[in-house]
Amino acid sequence: MMPNLLENILTPLAATVAQSTAPAEETVQAAQATTEIVEETGRPMRDLGGTFWLPEPQSTLAPSMDWAFMAITWLCYICFAGIVIALVYFTWKYRQKGNEVVYQADAPLHNTPLEVGWTVVPLLLCIAIFFMGFKGFLDLSTPPKDSYEIRVTAFKWGWGFKYPNGATSENLIVPVGQPVKLIMRSSDVLHSLYIPAFRVKKDVVPGRYSYLWFQADEIAGFPESDTSVETGHYLFCTEYCGTGHSNMNRVVYVLPQDDFEAWEEEQARWLDSVPDEDLYAVAGPRLYSKCSNCHTIDGGANTGPSWGDPTSGSLAGLGDVWKRTKDGTTPVTGGTKGKPGTTLADYIGEGKLYGTPEDYIRASILNPGELLVAGYGPNMPHFRGQIDERGIDGLIMMMAKIDEFDAAGRFKGTLPSVSAAGGEGTESE
Amino acid sequence: MANTVSPFEDPQERANAGVFGMACFIISLVMVFAATILAVVVVRLQDPGSWPPGGEVGLPPVLLASTVVLVISSGTMVAANRSARVGDGPGLARWMIATFVLAILFLMAQGIAWWELLDLGIGLDTDLWSWTFYVLTALHALHVLGGIIPMAVVTERARRHEYSVENHRGVTYVGMYWHFLDVAWLGLYATLWWATSV
Amino acid sequence: MTTIDANSPASTAVDPPVDNYLTYTRGILSWALTLDHKRIGVMYLFAVLSSFFVGGVFALLVRTELLTPGVTLPWVDADTYNEYFTLHGAIMVFLVIIPSIPAALGNFVLPVMLGAKDVAFPRMNLGSFYLWIVGAVCAVYSLVAGGFDTGWTFYTPYSTTTSFSGVIPVLIGVFILGFSSIFTGINFVVTIHKLRPPGMTWFRMPLFLWATYATALIQVLATPVLGITLLMLIVERVAQIGLFDPAMGGDPVLFQHFFWFYSHPAVYIMILPAMGIISEIISVHAHRHIFGYRFIAFSSVAIAIFSFLVWGHHMFTSGQSPLMNTLFSAITFSVAIPSAIKVFNWLSTLYKGSISLNTPMLYGLGFIFLFTIGGLTGLHLGTLNTDIHLHDTYFVVAHFHYVMMGSALIAMIGGLHHWWPKMFGKMYKENHGAIGFWLVFIGFNVTFFTQFMLGSHGMPRRYYDYMPEFQIYHVISTIGSYIMALGFFWTAYYLIASLISGKKAPANPWGGRSLEWQCSSPPPHDNFKTTPSVGDCYDFSVVHWDEEEGGYVVDRSGLPESEEKPSSH
Q: A148-271 is classed in which CATH architecture?
């Protein structure tokens, strides 16, 4: 444990130092160290970038905020230096030698002009700073009329972004050079959307809508796959929301206008273009990426029950989700309709709460919380409006054939359409 | 140790400090009720619908009776205080008993109001209106209960003629607190009455 | 000297066993049922410092967990981490900092400074201590009952829906602690109004009393709002419906308004008495009349008043209207002014002083250093557009630790060293104190200055897991926290050691001028046999070193008759 811990601390430090000071031949080592981090934490080590105080500004709003920040910071430097110099100088100059007090009768008791002075000068400075911040804030809180509107749903613990043409995404994809307005709501508790590179932040409050706008003025990559975070900007949740709060971060990609439109179009239509026989193999994993925050496939413990054969989770040995749903063996202890001491078998079947196992899983996606699996809390948000029937079909089929997927949810085999067309021999793969 | 119960040597100074302390405590409680009322007002103003949502149930009429009882009890408390100041021992006992009985009556009336609503199947978690009704009345009732205990002690001591013109601190404190409860209830009742409308 | 009372050291040097509050009566019950403000103060001190230890352990666990992204300590998962930082915050705010200076040090010092025998309502004083105990027990019980992970801010609707089942006990605990705080506040307000000795007009009070008075006003006016807010929260959690619940038309932002209406003034409950202590420490150890007495006194009251009008600056991103944000930002800057005034006045008090760098003075000067950083970085957060970027990041964490720990708690430790000889009659070793101070001071800056950079680069607070590029800052910060912990353990060690083997303290080891330095160390049970009258408590021209006494004495011979004489003897 201990050496491992030390290594975890030291390796990235070495990497950072190497990156910043290394001559050319050492960068290889640094790169190696960096790669190790990727494996350790699942996140690549990126350069903090920017200045000593601030990250690189990436939106039209950022420069004025940075200017205000640095102006205040410089004011702080000056005041702080003045105060500390006076403090040290007086302490040294008037230090007492021995025990006897050196009483100076001419030490002033007060000095009204001086005191009024150091009341008024800070007051004027504060008024100036206030107006600086006020001006910037007015820009921050008035989205331009022609903004591109994206609807945002925050939930424990992720974000749903919905674009005007119906496309949805988990990371935020925006066009470059165009004001973007986020219309945000929360489906459970308070969240707060924060994009440091853009210097914007706004709470997402259940029961009301809040707006946030920005205009990114530089292209920030496009993901090769959804798990890459190499080029985008981080998006954080900054209002504490429980277990997954610190993993509620996603990436913002800024695309050229054409690419953005193409992406948006593809995103809205992709499900339609998947052939029926490939649905579980193609749509399943893609949709599962949303579920993967809480549900593992390999039986690992997480916020929600695993889909795969649970060998290490709290439901060890129950069998994979489809099998235990079909067999009705899952113990149910809570939820709005479940009672302690019951199993799924009590709820699935002719005339019961759910007619078929498929009905149960469909309800769990659209209307979770009716039944809670033993050992799990009511944490799952509903996905009404975010997934259609075809998508649900794909997910249920994926669960039924969970063995064909690896731990990350990737399809291991050959696509059914390919193997049907390409013919013989590929089966064994 | 016994001689250090109060740092005041002069009983009059001690009584003054006591009144001052009681006033501070009441100011503190004023903040409690003011905040409560403010919360209800803010939420009510944001809600465009009618309170209660169905609109057919209103505040139990018995609240009007309890309000009258409480106001009268404030009057008898004033009379008790005056008796204490002039050294009218029997008068003090009489008025204290009257106040005490009225206080009990008030609590009973509040209980009837609760019972009426509960009888209609309206509980704490029915809607925000019922929530507000129960929380506001319960908050006040708890303060009344907190006042009734020292009031019982003072009443008993008054019956035994233990108070004098010089020393009737207990009567003064209970009186201050009781008048405050009276005003607080008027505030809460007005708030409930205002909130219960379309 | 002998005129002040029979127990002053001049006469004790002779022999007869001195009446001393520590040994006045014996036995556990004589402490548990004591009405003596000094004993209650000492019990508070013990309770608060114990809580500080527990809160500190949670802080170290949090810092250690943050050494690496993701899991570091094998038993700390995200939920456990959330519980740790919640506990750290709740313990430090409600059990440590809020009661630390007023209830522990204030209880001990305030009546002695006034020359009074006790606070106005000794029974209520003991009652408020036991309320504190009950509140603390509720908080401990909440751990047994399932813990809580809401953050110390208890924001709805998270706090009404979280599956941790210790939320209600801890809310009840905080509610009761609020009562304890209100009763202490009432007691101090009345004591300062009604028990000032002859000659002590409002503008002759030691500045610590002004600060305590301003604090007590906030305690009386703001704490009840927290109380009712938490009650409504409890009801809401039980009934699953309430005024803060958006599902039924309630308003979660209303909870934030109410919470901060208390919790922002609460920041001043923490910092105002700290400022009072610093005014005492600086003037006593610089042996110099405090500069600009009236400005300091007025600025305490000004801070207390403004503190009620600025709560909305915690909510610039919460969705309150831009108009409200603007107003709150503007008023927030007005709080900066009285704070700045105080710093300038303390600096001027050093000018032409006669400065002894005793341990309390080191803490006093350290306070000015740290409070300056804490205060100046408040400008970034009060400014509307920069706060949007910095809100709920480590920048805020660093800022409020500079103010609440670097200032309030450092002042508390400084005050503890300042009054330690008075409280227990023993001197700690000066060089030990200096080592402790430098460890704490350096550790503190290493821990929290790095967090400013973390925050301005966008690291959100309350994160269990973080981006690897932030790690270097986290590691430095954690190392700093270990240095600081070492400093505190060292301080605990030499203070306890001084109780056992410390040199006997003279009545006036530092050359103080206010009344608490004119009764013996430790003070007798009744403080003063008769109420002394006082003059200018910052006139140090009459304070002289007395070799025989081993401390300072106040020479009363040159003073007018009306001053400093007991009213009767």
A: Sandwich (2.60)
What secondary structure, in 3-state letters, does chain A show? Answer: CHHHHHHHHHHHHHHHHHHHHCCHHHHHHHHHHHHHHHHHHCCCCCCCCCCCCCCCCCECCHHHHHHHHHHHHHHHHHHHHHHHHHHHHHHHHCECCCCCCCCCCCCCCCCHHHHHHHHHHHHHHHHHHHHHHHHHHHHHHCCCCCCEEEEEEEECCEEEEECCCCCEECCEEEECCCCEEEEEEECCCCEEEEEHHHCEEEEECCCCCEEEEECECCCECCCCCCCCCCCCEEEEECCCCCCCHHHCCEEEEEECHHHHHHHHHHHHHHHHHCCHHHHHHHHHHHHHHHHCCCCCCCCCCCCCCCCCCCCCCCCCCCCCHHHHHHHCCCEEEECCCCCCCEEHHHCECCCCCECCHHHHHHHHHHCCCCCEECCCCCCCCCCCCCCCHHHHHHHHHHHHCHHHECCCCCECCCCHHHHHHHCCCHHHC
Q: pLDDT tens digits for C248-259?
A: 778 889 999 999
Q: B20 at the C interface (CB within 8 A)?
A: yes
Q: Which of B18, B29, B40 sits opposite C224 (nearest CB)?
A: B29
Q: To which residue do tokens 């909510």 refer? A: C315
Q: Do C225 and B21 touch (CB under 8 A)?
A: no
Nearest partner of C186 among B31, B174, B26, judged by Cα: B26
- The reply to whether CATH 1.20.1270.220 applies to domain A274-428 is no
Across the interface, whether the CB atoms of C317 and A202 are under 8 A apart is answered yes
Instruction: Determine contact: C361 vs chain B, CB below 8 A.
Output: no
Q: What ipTM does the predicted assembly reach?
A: 0.90
Query: Tokens 């001591």 appear where?
Result: B157
Q: Which of A17-31, A256-270, C548-562 has the highest mean pLDDT?
A: A256-270
> Smallest Cα–Cα separation from B81: which of B186, B21, B163, B140?
B163
pTM above 0.90, yes or no: no
Distance from CA of A207 to the nearest CA of C (A): 5
* Domains, chain C, with CATH or none: 9-554 (1.20.210.10)
Write the CATH number for B180. 1.20.120.80
Q: Measure the CA–CA gap between B136 and C398, rounded to whole angstroms.
A: 40
CA distance linking residue C380 with residue A68, whole number of Å: 9
- Chain C neighbors of B17, CB-CB under 8 A: 120-121, 190, 193-195
pLDDT of residue C65: 95
Spatial separation of the C-alpha atoms in residues A342 and A315, rounded to whole Å = 15
Q: Which helix (H) or strand (E) holds C8?
A: none
Q: How many domains does chain B have?
A: 1
For chain A, what are the domain ranges?
2-41, 148-271, 274-428
Strand pairing report for A180-186 and A148-155: parallel
Looking at mean pLDDT, say which of A44-48, A272-276, A405-409, B98-102 comes out highest: B98-102
Tokens 């002069």: give the residue: B10
Chain C: residue nearest A184 by CA?
C319
A379 and A293 in contact (C-beta within 8 Å)?
no
The boundaries of the domain holding residue B145 are 11-195
What is the C-alpha to C-alpha distance for residues C554 and C518, in angstroms, rounded to an integer? 8
Among all chains, which residue has been given the structure tokens 């409560």? B36
Query: Would you say residue B99 lies in a domain?
Result: yes
- First-last CA distance in chain B: 62
Q: What separation in angstroms does the CA of A343 have from each of A337, A346, A352, C23, C451?
A: 12, 6, 13, 67, 49
Q: How far from A235 is each of A157, A201, C14, C22, CA to CA, in Å?
A: 13, 10, 74, 59
Mean pLDDT score, C491-514: 92
Are A192 and C333 inside 8 Å of each other by CB? no
Q: How far is A3 from chain C (nearest CA, A)?
A: 12
C393 SS3 class: strand
